[in-house]
Amino acid sequence: MKKTIRLIIPTLFVFLLTAIATVHAAPILKLHSAGHDVTLLQQLLQKENYTINITGVFDETTQEIVKTFQSDNNLPDTGIVDRQTWSLLTEKSSQGSATTPVVSTPTVVTPQNDNPITTVPISQPPVTITIPTQTNPQSSDNTRRKKPQSEEAVIASIRAQRVPETATFLPRSKVNSIISTAKKYMGTPYVYGGETPKGFDCSGYLQYVFKQNNIDIPRTADEQYKVGEKVPAAQLQPGDLVFFATDLTGISHCGIYLGKNQFIHASTSRGVRIDQLDDTYWQKYFINGKHIVK
Q: What is the CATH number of domain 140-291?
């Protein structure tokens, strides 16, 4: 009996810590919020069979649907996604799918080997990745004000934007190691802001994989999009990076190209997985690849 109690108490303690971390890590979203959190919110509401478009913008329609969800679940229908609303929404979604995003507290990234992590210059062997200043003459404010009406036109305009480029920096001899490391974390859950094997977001996953191979790349998808040489899908090589604009406002998702039209990434709905680049959904939001293999 005493042995059973000793086993139950640590398990209960871990469960409580996880629940507390989930609540405190939950985002607070309201009218006019925008970005990846809103995209994830809309995806979760869609999974709960609420009719909502995935725009990445917390507009009045999203607010009304949030109110409906809150009312349906006996919560104050404020239209504001507080921690209680977010926790219930992710809990409901996880009951329907074992691969629904989980929120946890990030921990410190530790390399898996004893070699020091070298920052790599993009133009020579190990130093530092230098990202050129954005040279696009059209400001993001003007781009947003003049955003075309159709999704196709928005994507086309993002594809056409100029983006900083650097020399290739990933040694071809390290490509297999990068891909092997990436596949090692298949099934790891998606965690917004996650950058460890406990949970990754898309750019945190890429940064972690490269860091395990002693290569430092920027932390966010939009900054990662500034390294390497811009190429269309047809010119991608295994080890290159791929980028998407799933929220229709700019680069919001990324992955590692594996070859044969496949890429590996940390998806919001199913965690780290392999998908087809020519899948209808990913093809629609694909912006460009960045060739980084030298």
A: 3.90.1720.10
